[in-house]
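for the writeup, i need someone to sanity check this before i put it in the appendix. the sequnce is what the collaborator sent (i think, or maybe the updated version? ugh). structure was predicted straight from it, no edits. if anything looks off just tell me and ill rerun, i have time this weekend
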Amino acid sequence: MLASGGDAPGMNACMEAIFNYSMQQGLDVWVARMGYDGILNEDFRRAEREMCHGISHLAGCVYRCGRSPMFGTPAGTKKGIDNLKKHGFDALIVIGGDGSLRALERIKQAGINVIGIPASVDNDCYFTSNSLGFASATEAITQYVDRIKPTMLTNERSFMVNIFGKGCSELAVTAAVASFANFVDRSEKRLTAAYVSDLFNSQRAKGNHTCIGMVEEKRKDLETFLEGIKMRSPDNKVRLDRGEYYQRGAVPCYRDRILAAHYGVKAVDLIKQGTYGVCIGMNFDEIITQSLEEANRAKPRFNDTLYSLISKISNW
């Protein structure tokens, strides 16, 4: 097994579930450190109880994870596949986001038994409604905003929080509703500085001197956007807060730990059944499996119902 891409809360819990259940089933577990780079470097380690037991509550990834530009090249993919075949592993479980699962499809095409588990704070594995880490990241943002609010209210300031998303606004929208934010600037609908400043000014006219906005990452003109808002604000009391890594490094919440347990156990069951080439997900509280190809080609979704709540609860 390996964890790939950016770390997501719940990765450790999933690894512990896989290890513990595999031991019960008489299976040996090996781990590739640093994700796909571990395959390229043949950094394979037999999973031991000392490293895999009692880690479900930990953030990050004890066996490390990361992106692997080299594995994305034809030469890198070939080398990785050759190394997997050389060591004779029966199956490969990859815990990661959309890029990691796309890379896994290339491994499947080489005839290797694979299983994918979605782990992404962005929740951009669209075949499932629940990626590991999303719930914890949302909770972390909500708590983060809760801690900012008292100071901003005391100083009568408005603020915006930069949110992870990578082109998927689900994290920003969900956190906005949970935080009772006034607006969300998302990749599908970027707002203008004039619009936001008018919103802030109208709120102040109503007596609401502290407004909250969520800005999904990757806005290229972020600094210009902020300055434009400040120029149009009479008192210039607007702040931008960057809490991106606070979101990713969150301690896994109970929902992600339970999800990790379901995903880990299901992965081992699939290996025992000889079912490969699939991704595991959850929709409507039901564990699902979908072919890797279908999972990787699932279309982006947008929760209009959730988004519509923002204007209704923020005193526009």
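The first strand starts at residue 2 and ends at 3. The chain has two domains: 2-133+250-296, 137-249.
thx in advance!!
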